[in-house]
């Protein structure tokens, strides 16, 4: 099939790479064929697959081929850009006299796919299918290629047949396909994201309480996970969640709940999450008796989660802002997100960007761990203790063992854990 992919969201690049690998002719509209965004470049396997398909001519730019000549159009544009999506679909309706399939994988809000459908002619077999973006950064290639479940908003038999044929390479090995209306699929995506946010918010609130009552939240979490009604997922306490899309979905559902039901449940979760992002700073600030002026603080992990290169809404932004306001010098390390962090702050006189993690902790008064990248999990503790001026560790992701660090001579602060 000839498919035009619109937008520079990760989901669009994944779709282009994977669909091209199964013989489809992909036209990438309005962007370069070698995406410069670091978040896309570090997605395992993505760039290699794009470059391979470009070399073989299966992915072409809109400068090489007419994007409106495609029979299938895949929308993966930025969150909230409904006007841009409407403009694309309106033009498609004007130039196509025959059948047309539009697959919307954008975060445009509940009812947006129906609004796009209204711009097409169903009598000409022109239809919109909504495919929720369930892809997670760092795992997106695998999740697209081997989905366990696929939620599909589709209200036309002919559109379903064409969509099923297009996705058959990825669903033929037992994928469960759940069909529903477009609006129901959009709402389901909101509902899933909201539930995950509630779980994260709840475990973080429990962690705060655990600090006060003298229990280890990690032991409590393990106990909670044994109940099948609860399970282990999204129950890892830490210094808050981030990411552009995850947060925007929650904000969208929070706004809808507030407007239609007067509910402030998710608004409360978002507000508490913003406060929770500063928890590592507050623990450090209290340790040094509310005076961090002139202190040298190391930060490991800037990305909002491991496996991505963006700091969008990351706890690191709130923590570093607070440290700078207190007059501390901050030495930063992240395996992938240093460039994006530097874009946010520039060459600030109180910030030092470090290529290696141990460079950041040299002569530091404390180490703050904010992102649980794999390379931070088992450091050389002897070397850490030797390098640091004060062996203080604030573990924002509960990566380390408090008793081990205490035995090695460190002062340790976790999230809802015993500190020494």
TrEMBL record:
Residues annotated for substrate binding in this entry: 189, 234-238, 242, 305
Family to which the UniProt record says this protein belongs: Belongs to the UDP-glucose/GDP-mannose dehydrogenase family.
Biological classification of the source: Bacteria, Pseudomonadati, Pseudomonadota, Gammaproteobacteria, Oceanospirillales
Catalyses which reaction(s): UDP-alpha-D-glucose + 2 NAD(+) + H2O = UDP-alpha-D-glucuronate + 2 NADH + 3 H(+)
Protein name: UDP-glucose 6-dehydrogenase
Claim: NAD is one of the keywords in the record: yes
UniProt cross-references to PANTHER family, sorted A to Z: UDP-GLUCOSE 6-DEHYDROGENASE TUAD
One Pfam family recorded for the sequence: UDPG_MGDP_dh
NCBIfam families per record: NDP-sugDHase
């Amino acid at each position: 099939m000839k498919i035009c992919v619109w937008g520079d969201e990760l989901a669009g690049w994944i779709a282009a790479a994977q669909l091209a690998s199964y013989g489809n002719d992909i036209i990438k509209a309005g962007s370069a064929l070698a995406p410069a965004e670091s978040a896309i470049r570090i997605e395992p396997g993505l760039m290699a697959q794009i470059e391979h398909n470009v070399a073989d001519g299966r992915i072409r730019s809109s400068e090489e081929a007419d994007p409106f000549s495609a029979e299938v159009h895949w929308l993966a544009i930025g969150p909230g850009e409904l006007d841009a999506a409407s403009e694309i679909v309106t033009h498609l309706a004007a130039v196509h006299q025959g059948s047309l399939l539009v697959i919307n994988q954008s975060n445009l809000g509940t009812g947006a796919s129906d609004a796009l459908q209204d711009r097409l002619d169903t009598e000409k077999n022109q239809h919109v299918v909504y495919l929720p973006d369930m892809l997670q950064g760092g795992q997106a290639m695998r999740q697209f290629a081997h989905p366990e479940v696929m939620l599909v908003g589709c209200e036309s038999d002919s559109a379903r047949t064409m969509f099923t044929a297009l996705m058959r390479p990825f669903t033929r090995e037992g994928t469960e396909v759940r069909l529903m209306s477009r609006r129901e699929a959009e709402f389901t995506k909101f509902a899933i994201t909201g539930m995950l946010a509630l779980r994260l918010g709840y475990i973080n609130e429990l962690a705060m309480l655990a600090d006060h009552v003298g229990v280890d939240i990690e032991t409590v979490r393990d106990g909670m996970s044994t109940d099948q009604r609860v399970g282990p997922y999204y129950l890892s306490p830490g210094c808050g969640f981030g990411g552009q899309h995850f947060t925007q979905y929650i904000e969208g559902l929070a706004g809808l709940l507030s407007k239609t039901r007067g509910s402030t449940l998710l608004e409360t979760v978002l507000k508490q999450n913003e406060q929770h992002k500063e928890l590592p700073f507050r623990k450090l600030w209290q340790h040094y008796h509310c005076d961090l002026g002139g202190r040298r603080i190391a930060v490991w992990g800037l990305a909002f989660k491991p496996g991505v290169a963006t700091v969008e809404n990351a706890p690191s932004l709130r923590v570093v802002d607070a440290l700078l306001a207190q007059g501390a010098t901050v030495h930063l390390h992240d395996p992938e997100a240093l460039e994006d962090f530097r874009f946010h702050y520039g060459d600030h006189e109180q910030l030092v960007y470090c290529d290696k993690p141990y460079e950041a902790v040299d002569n530091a008064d404390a180490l703050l761990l904010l992102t649980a990248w794999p390379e931070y999990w088992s450091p050389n503790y002897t070397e850490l203790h030797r390098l640091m001026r004060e062996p203080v560790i604030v573990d924002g992701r509960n990566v380390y063992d408090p008793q081990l660090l205490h035995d090695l001579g460190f002062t340790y602060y976790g999230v809802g854990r015993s500190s020494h």
